[in-house]
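Deviations from the work plan: none for this task. Representative record:
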Amino acid sequence: MAFRATVLTLYPEMFPGPLGISLAGRALARGDAVVEARQIRDFGKGRHRAVDDTPAGGGAGMVLRADVLAEAIDAALQPDDGRPRLLMSPRGRPLTQGLVRELAGGEGALIVCGRFEGVDERVIAGRSLTEVSIGDYVLSGGEIAAMALLDAVIRLLPGVMGNEQSGIRESFETPLLEHPHYTRPAEWEGRRIPPVLASGDHAAVERWRLAEAERLTRERRPDLFRGWKDLSPEDG
Ligand code: ADE
């Protein structure tokens, strides 16, 4: 069964967007994954199909209505729908490769894209939405965050990645950042590739790559490096 993502958004025309191109695009074209975008405004109230209102208690901005969003969610779900229900939000649980892997192992997801200042808290509780953040910065809406999440999930689906090896080696599959990469020409603007990479000694190449991955991780992401050292005492 294909991974099926239903995205609830005020801008369904943003989808599939970049997901229609390259690796994810081919997966969608083959039917390994399905991304369907639904318009929340179809469930809006009144002549103007209003989806938002002013915040209770006053203040700036607008809040997405609980009743409108709940109707959109209920209409998008099958009776026995067991897919996780996500709300893209900077308040959410950080998106990690672990969560991506978990989602890729399931049948799909319902993904709500927030807009305005926020979403009425009651629909988050009432429809058991799990808030997910793609980082500590604020986007103007959840759509780009949903695309980032879906891109990361789709590339892990069975048969999607041409070279299975390249998936396993990459950043966060091991908890280290990736080692540097080089290709031809061997010298460019006076910079040579590290000699070990031309040595033909595969074991030495692997040792160099691990050492470089550790060096980069120690320098750039001491938080990840501590976790790695805890995993691999003494010799690594
Ligand atoms: N919506 C706005 N900002 C976001 C973020 N950082 N992550 C997920 N959804 C968002």
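Helices lie at 22-30, 66-76, 97-104, 121-126, 143-154, 164-169, 202-220, 222-231.
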